């Protein structure tokens, strides 16, 4: 089992290395065609990994009682849940980049390092979640209620974000000087002998903390499907690996997916109810996959066929690099 985990980490590290240091070595703005090809490639890898899942559970490479076919269905369900919830994450990331006016040529770099951090944070959260569910049966009710709360909140939340109000960002700005301008793709620079963070680093921190917040919803959602830690982690990570290319595909079409949030809310509610009724309701694994896929497809189709309501005018945004930054910390 340990070798399987090590092998998966090596596989992910290889994919990330090829992505940043070989295929995207030079900063550039991916065209829509390129982004679509990359999205197709990442999706193929994610879906194709189900073949390895079958072999691993057939040959006992993972310590689990699941049958190979059941493990594949569970993996695909978890992958689809994370992929669908990642779409909502994409829209928030687009708002963050717009808020900080991150040049499009450097957005891929921010997303790459943001996902690097997400791998470690999510592993810790998944292992903690699996441990709690295995040790304390009442945690199913806690997670179920959390998902129902998240579903209700998703329907009522506003798309407006104010990163300058983030306490972590306020702390960073008070600990280290922050430049007003971008300095290429660097996160830190030296100016007049002083080390300073660039707006790109501030944007990275916001993307990272946002992912952790989203993981509070997505990880319990997958744990509501299975507590097999390898299935939860592999489906989660392989779904977010394609987040960068998915961002460049969807970021320009945000307004066309107005009704997707209702599908995501229903998906969270479905898994939440499933966790609350785990002692009396045991639907077939394929049923969860069909329900989740159907809700996601319905949200996308309705969004594309029905015109979205006109957005309300927004107030102008102040320069986030100088909001509430002490004068002695500005450069």
TrEMBL record:
The keyword RNA-binding does not apply. The keyword Cell membrane does not apply. It is found in: Membrane. Residues 312-331 are annotated as: Disordered. It holds the Pfam family TerC. It is a multi-pass membrane protein. The chain crosses the membrane at residues 6-23, 35-57, 77-98, 110-132, 138-156, 200-223, 229-250, 262-280, 286-304. GO terms for cellular component: membrane. It comes from the Bacteria. Keywords: Membrane, Transmembrane, Transmembrane helix. PANTHER family: MEMBRANE BOUND PREDICTED REDOX MODULATOR, THYLAKOID MEMBRANE PROTEIN TERC, CHLOROPLASTIC. Belongs to the TerC family. This is TerC family protein. It comes from Neolewinella aurantiaca.
């Amino acid at each position: 089992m340990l070798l399987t985990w090590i092998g998966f980490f090596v596989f992910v590290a290889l994919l990330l290395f090829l992505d940043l240091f070989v295929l995207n070595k030079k900063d550039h703005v991916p065209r829509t065609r390129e982004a679509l090809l990359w999205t197709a490639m990442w999706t193929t890898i994610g879906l194709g990994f189900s073949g390895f899942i079958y072999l691993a559970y057939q040959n006992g490479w993972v310590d689990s009682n699941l049958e190979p076919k059941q493990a594949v269905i569970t993996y695909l369900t978890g992958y689809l849940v994370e992929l669908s919830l990642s779409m909502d994450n994409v829209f928030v990331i687009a708002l963050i980049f717009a808020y900080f006016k991150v040049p499009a040529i450097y957005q891929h770099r921010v997303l790459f390092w943001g996902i690097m951090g997400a791998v470690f944070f999510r592993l810790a959260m998944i292992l903690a979640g699996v441990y709690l569910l295995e040790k304390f049966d009442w945690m199913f009710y806690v997670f179920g209620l959390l998902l129902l709360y998240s579903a209700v909140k998703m329907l009522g939340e506003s798309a407006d974000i104010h990163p300058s109000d983030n306490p972590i960002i306020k702390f960073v700005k008070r600990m280290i000087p922050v430049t007003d301008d971008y300095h290429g793709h660097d996160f830190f620079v030296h100016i007049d002998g002083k080390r300073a963070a660039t707006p790109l680093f501030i944007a990275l921190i916001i993307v990272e903390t946002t992912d952790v917040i989203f993981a509070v919803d997505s990880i319990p959602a997958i744990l509501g499907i299975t507590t097999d830690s390898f299935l939860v982690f592999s489906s989660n990570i392989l779904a977010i690996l394609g987040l960068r290319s998915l961002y460049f595909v969807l970021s320009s079409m945000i307004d066309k997916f107005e009704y997707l949030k209702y599908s995501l809310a229903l998906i969270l509610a479905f898994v939440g109810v499933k966790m609350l009724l785990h002692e009396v309701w045991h639907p077939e694994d394929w049923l969860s996959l069909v329900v989740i896929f159907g809700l996601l497809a319905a949200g996308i189709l309705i969004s594309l066929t029905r015109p979205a309501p006109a957005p309300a005018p927004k107030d102008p945004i102040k320069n986030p690099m100088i909001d509430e930054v002490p004068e002695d910390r500005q450069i």
